[in-house]
């Protein structure tokens, strides 16, 4: 399935809903969209991965790249994911220690604080 | 034993095709359904690595993939890059992944290797027997 990207605002957060397959062919489009959001002033980006069917190292590299760009700007990149196969990928690569991971967009954007 | 071979130009767009073929052959070989996601990911990582190496070295040679099901499901992905590049794969320590000093390329390679090592119990990366290049060999059990 092709990559799909949709952006919406939830309070001060930019929520990027990603669907389909994120791999070496499609990851550049994800990088481009994340860079557009950061260049446009977004400082809290929530990437919703719950409709992603496939995610590989190039996709993970793009997410880490966004995290690295946001950190010195005082921003953050949070991920939404409740699919076990994807969560296993984050555990194996230890990237679950790098990103805040939430089960839902609501949890990631909860103004009362992290609920992951 | 049956064997399926696939060769493709080193372009990112073909990696998805390789994944689809690899999983279809795995299913037919009798690899357990619950392992197929891992097979798909590992084949994708091995092929991505080969494509990136060919692009890095300006090689137009085809990336080769061979799947066989002799008592187990074996996938070999072969690149034609200089051996020192192919064997330079090393797993990154977890705390290195978000460090600033790591280039994006090195980070992606490190994450890719972590995924290969994490998802494939029987994994070998070795020089090809003939000519220049590296072979990534992955083996999964079959249930029949």
From TrEMBL, chain A:
Belongs to the anti-sigma-factor antagonist family. It holds the Pfam family STAS. PANTHER family: ANTI-SIGMA FACTOR ANTAGONIST TM_1081-RELATED, ANTI-SIGMA FACTOR ANTAGONIST TM_1081-RELATED-RELATED. This is Anti-sigma factor antagonist. It comes from Phytohabitans maris. SUPFAM superfamilies: SpoIIaa-like. Residues 3-112 form the STAS domain. PROSITE patterns: STAS (PS50801). InterPro entries: Anti-sigma_ant, STAS_dom, STAS_dom_sf.
